[in-house]
Amino acid sequence: MNWDQIAGKWDQAKGRIKEKWGQLTDDDLARIQGKRDQLAGRIQERYGYTKERVEEELKAWERDSRW
After folding, report:
1. How confident is the model at residue 53 (pLDDT cuts 50, 70, 90)?
2. Could you give the count of Cα atoms lying within 13 Å of 1 in the half-sphere of its Cβ?
3. What range(s) does the CsbD-like domain occupy (predicted)?
4. Calpha distance 5→63 (Å, rounded)
5. 5, 37, 41, 42: least surrounded by Cβ within 10 Å?
6. pLDDT for residue 67 is more than 90
7. 6-32, pLDDT tens digit by residue?
8. Please, what sign has the CA dihedral across residues 57, 31, 14, 66?
9. For residues 30 and 50, what is the distance between their CA atoms, to the nearest angstrom?
C-alpha cells in the first residue's frame, strides 16, 4: 500500500500504527494527520531509533499493510 492510500484512510491507519508503535499517543497521531515525514520523526523521537531504522520499519509496514 502506498502512502497516499494510507493517508486517505488515516482513521483506520491510526489503529494499526498504534499496534505497531504503541508508544505513540492519540495526540501524536492527531498532530501527524497522515504526514509520513511527521510520523517518521515522531517514531524516531519516541523510540530513539535512527532515521535509517525508522525508514526500514515504515517501508516494511507499508508493504505489509493490507486493507
Report:
1. very high
2. 16
3. 4-55
4. 12
5. 37
6. no
7. 999 999 999 999 999 999 999 999 999
8. negative
9. 23
27: cell is 495526540
3-state secondary structure of 66: coil
Q: Give the Cα separation of 24 and 21 in Å (integer).
A: 6
Q: Which three cell numbers stand for residue 50?
A: 535512527
The arithmetic mean of pLDDT across residues 24-50, rounded, is 97
Q: Are 67 and 8 in contact (CB under 8 A)?
A: no
Place of cell 505497531: 20
Say which residue the cell 497516499 belongs to: 4
- Cα–Cα separations (whole angstroms), residue 26 to 8, 13, 29, 30, 34: 18, 12, 5, 6, 13
Residue ranges of domains in the chain, CATH in brackets: 3-64 (1.10.1470.10)
